[in-house]
Write a structure and sequence with these properties.
9 strands, disordered N terminus, alpha+beta, 374 residues, five-stranded mixed β-sheet, NADH Oxidase
Length: 374
């Protein structure tokens, strides 16, 4: 056997081994469409209850923690709860963002109930952000149906890439702000206020990447493998982070929780933030009247109503609230942008050329419903 023949055989063996390893690896992003709905999604629920709670669960939440549970007191009579096992204490120590996420859940629930012919009667229960029982809801049957928001709830997604820098058209902006111009503000990318938010977003992310507790918390909610994503049905997947191709394969097969604490991961994360803030039509800021439970829930509902409007107009939204999570950047924000009220949401906004279907995973209803009295 001559040297050239040997090298040819060895190279073939290496390629065959690599090919086999690739075939056995985690080769593609797990998306929402890949998950078959659970047939056993809580046998005690009425059919309409299942549909309404499923649609409610499509609401967004920080790190996709889905921090809600539902006590079923009786058919169509529930208590919506705050699941402390899904809090993010490193970046949301007072559960402000948790309440906002619960507000988005409540808005979806109300729209879903209307689609199936029910009106919601609400009873606020929580006095603080940490109370377990947040709000009671009784669904009463009505003759009217309003299914206008069904497809918007099913197709809503957070966009991270593909934003245009073109300013929002006046007609689109009027549609987004309709009825709420005093609490929703648009900062166009050409203005000094948007430039300030760009810089401070990068700074807040830099501060957060340096904080090990925040990085460990992030690591806990990244589902690196498709197996973990399928197991937990929550958190951040390579699909929801829009990491595709070779990069997505590398994350799923070569990364784990410890990777998030390494300097190269932190640096690449910050580079990604710089790239994101450099491309958009600006920012949308949403405010609340105050910091009470009721006000935070209403502000979460307001954000969700905005989210349900944008897809039809080819507009993407990307929540980037790190400025509000770091004390030094939070204190500088309000004076710099000249907005009254309490700023609760900062969303990067812009037109997108294509709008893929939603990819973030959701837990089955049976995982978050409870049949005991609160």
């Amino acid at each position: 056997m001559n040297r050239r023949h040997f090298i040819g055989i060895a190279s073939g063996a290496i390629l065959a081994t690599a090919g086999t390893a690739y075939l056995l690896s985690d080769r593609r992003n797990l998306l929402r469409a890949d998950i078959t709905p659970e047939a056993e999604d809580h046998e005690n629920l009425q059919p309409d209850e299942k549909e309404i709670l499923f649609l409610a669960s499509l609401a967004p939440s920080g790190h996709n923690t889905q921090p809600w549970f539902v006590y079923r007191l009786e058919p169509y009579h529930w208590t919506i709860g705050n699941d402390r096992s899904r809090w993010l204490p490193a970046v949301d120590p007072d559960q402000r963002e948790t309440l906002l996420s619960l507000g988005a859940f409540l808005q979806n629930l109300e729209f879903a109930a209307e689609a199936y012919g029910y009106v919601c009667r609400w009873t606020l229960l929580a006095k603080s952000n940490q109370d377990e029982n947040v709000i009671g809801v009784q669904l009463n049957k009505t003759a009217s149906l309003n299914s206008a928001n069904i497809e918007s709830m099913k197709s809503r997604r957070t966009m991270r890439t593909g934003f245009s820098r073109g300013a929002l058209r006046q007609a689109d902006l009027a549609h987004l702000l309709e009825g709420e111009p005093e609490v929703i503000y648009y900062l166009p990318t050409t203005g000094k206020e948007a430039a300030f938010v760009n810089v401070q977003t990068i700074e807040a992310n830099r501060l957060q990447t340096l904080r090990d507790p925040a990085q460990r918390e992030l690591a806990d909610w990244i589902r690196f493998s498709s197996a973990d994503a399928r197991k937990y049905r929550d958190g951040l997947t390579t699909g929801s982070m829009e990491i595709a191709g070779i990069a997505g394969w590398a994350v799923r097969n070569c990364y784990n929780k410890s990777s998030v604490l390494k300097s190269n991961f932190r640096e690449r994360s910050l580079d990604q933030v710089r790239e994101e803030v450099s491309a958009s039509a600006g920012w949308i800021l949403i405010t609340s009247e105050n910091a009470s439970v009721a006000s935070l829930l209403e502000t979460g509902r307001r954000m969700q109503r905005l989210f349900l409007k944008v897809r039809a107009r080819g507009i993407g939204l990307h929540p980037m609230t790190q400025i509000l999570e770091e004390p030094s950047t939070r204190s500088a924000l309000q004076p710099a942008v000249g907005i009254g009220g309490n700023i609760q949401f900062i969303l990067r906004v812009g037109y997108v050329g294509s709008y893929p279907p939603p990819v973030s995973l959701r837990r089955p209803i049976s995982w978050f419903i409870r049949n005991q009295s609160p």
